[in-house]
Design goal:
SAM-dependent_MTases_sf; alpha/beta; Rossmann fold; about 325 residues; 6-stranded mixed beta sheet; rRNA processing; single chain; elongated; binds S-adenosylmethionine; two-stranded antiparallel ribbon; Helicase, Ruva Protein, domain 3
Amino acid sequence: MHPLVLHSLPPAPIDSSFPPTPKPYSTLSPLPHNSFATTIRELKTAKLHGFAASASPSNPKTKTQKQDDDYHTTLKALNSKGRFPRRSLGQHYMLNGSINEQLVGAADVKEGDVVLEIGPGTGSLTNVLVNVGAAVLAIEKVLQEDFTRCHIRSHMSLIMEGRSFVESQRAKVVANIPFNISTDVVKQLLPMGDMFSEVVLLLQEEAALRLVDPSLRSSEYRPINIFVNFYSDPEYKFKVPRTNFFPQPKVDAAVVAFRLKQALDYPRVSSTKSFFSMVNSAFNGKRKMLRKTLQHICPPTEIEAALSEVGFQTTSRPEELALEDFVKLHNLISKP
Ligand SMILES: C[S@@+](CC[C@H](N)C(=O)[O-])C[C@H]1O[C@@H](n2cnc3c(N)ncnc32)[C@H](O)[C@@H]1O
């Protein structure tokens, strides 16, 4: 399947609360499937057709006028195709162009960067990315491809191959993703530090806080936190109140930037597979002591000895251990 994008939103029932009398869908034809360069050209054409426009940063309009324009442009883009957002696809469209600009700024996207966008929707964020001179690969489920099922590495490799990159230059990810696929996206992208340097995502605020600041000993501390810190340095950037989306979600959102580590900077473990399998087992069952939950790996006495060596009590539970403690524990108890 080709990952070419920016087309139309899916046919859907018209809701009475949505601006009525949809106009016929007129401008964009399906994108050719031959090259990435063509995709970018089409994205620019899309902007000319007014399919997805956000005010350019050089626009001298006032902030209020500009936000008003962003709002109307997004609604117009939806209405002109007689489409109604589907909640099942997490279609909450961004109405505020300055947040799109801040998202792009959070990833420090510059001319010549290659950027992966997941779920471009009406293309308002795509537009900002293209305007700063980035080459954008956008994957939209309603058009071409489901991100959670695609082979992102082969898509990206095809794009990177055709470009004259300095070897150290990696691509970036900038996306306003549906909240319901955020864990899948994080799990899929964070281990790809060889390909991406930054992953900037607009997430549900609660999820953003849980991923970035899970205090030790809290019930929010989970294997995903070990995973996130193993592969990246996450940073909470800013909150995005729910009023900035259409339709308005029930919760606020927030932007998180994950700076991806490269393999050389990962904590030293004999095998990442056995490390994460140990971490998952450690959290299995509520309030279980590690000497119990890990006894399929080695006898409890050995686990107790390892815990003492790492500086913990023999009765310790998983929420007491930080990433580096799990790494030490794994290296002491895992069999080569
Ligand atoms: C929150 S909306 C964001 C739309 C647009 N980027 C914006 O900021 O207004 C999420 C978009 O992701 C698309 N989407 C949902 N699930 C997806 C998936 N599994 N793979 C790719 N795109 C998906 C939806 O159709 C929708 O266009």
